[in-house]
Amino acid sequence: MLKELIISVRAFFLAHKFIIQHRLWRWMILPGIIYAFLFILGISYFSQTSSVFIEWIILKTGLKSWVDTIDSDIIGFFITMGSFWLWFTLMLFYFAMFKFIFLILFAPVFSYHHLRIAAIQQNVPFLFNWSEYIKLMIRAIKLSLTNMLWQIVYLIPIILFCTIPIIGWFTPIFTILMEGYYFGYAMMDYGLATENKSSIASASYVSNHKGLPIANGLMFYILHLIPVIGWVTAPFYALIAAHLNTQEIKDNA
Q1: What pTM does this model have?
Q2: Residue (of 217, 239, 22) closest to 113 by Cα position
Q3: What number of H helices and E strands is found in the chain?
Q4: What is the per-residue pLDDT for 143?
Q5: Cα–Cα distance measured from residue 191 to residue 173, given in angstroms and rounded to the nearest whole number
Q6: What is the pLDDT of residues 140-184, one digit of tens each?
Q7: To bridge 126 with a disulfide, which of 44, 119, 178, 212 should be the other Cys (CB 3.0-4.6 Å)?
Q8: CA distance 235 to 189
Q9: Angle between helical axes of 130-161 and 171-194 (0-180°, round to 10)
Q10: Which of 216, 230, 15 shows the shortest CA–CA distance to 114?
Q11: How far apart are CA 247 and CA 209, in angstroms?
C-alpha cells in the first residue's frame, strides 16, 4: 500500500504538469470558483451548527452543571477535549455530505472533462459523444449515491464512539482515511469507466489498490489548506491525478 500511496501523491504533481502542458486552466477556473464559493458557504454553516449541536448536548445531558458542581480540572479537560474531537468529527461528517452533494452536482462537469482528459492522454482527437457522456454521468451519480449511503452507515457509529474519553479521540483518523477512500474511489471510477470496466470490476480494482484512492482523497483535502487557489484547483487536480493513477497501475480487475 505504501507504494500506491506514493504513486497517488506523485500523480498530483504530474497532474500539475499535465494541466500546464495542455493548457487546461481555462476549463477548470469557472467550475473551480463555483466549488470554492460552495465550500466557503458550506464550511461556515457546518462550523456554526456543529458548535450549537455540541452545546445543546452538553446542556441537555446536564454535563455542564455536573462539571461546575464537582469543580475538577481533570474532568473539565476531558470534557473539553471530547467536545473538540466530537466537533471535528461532526465537521468531517458534514464535509462528507457536502462532498457527495458536490460530486453529484458536478458529475456533468467531471464527465465532460474526463472524456477530454482521456482523449488528450491517449493522443487522439476529442470527439464529443452524447451517449458516452450520459452513460458516464449517470454512472458517476449512482456511485456517489451508493457511497454516500455506505459512508453514513459507517460514520454514525464512529460519531458515537468519538464520545468515549481518550479512545474516541482517535476516531477522526479513521474518519479522514474513510473520507479519502470514498472520494478517491469516485475520482478513479471515471477512468475505470472509460476503460470499459464494469462497476463491479471498478469496485474490485479500487479495493485491491486502496492506497490509490486514500492518497487521492487525502491530497484533495490537503489542497484545501491553501486558501482560494487550493479550493479552486483541488477537484480537477484530484480528477486528473486519479486518471493518471489508473493508467500507471494496470491489472485484470
Answers
A1: 0.80
A2: 239
A3: 10, 0
A4: 94
A5: 28
A6: 999 999 998 888 887 777 766 666 666 666 777 777 888 889 999
A7: 119
A8: 14
A9: 170
A10: 15
A11: 13
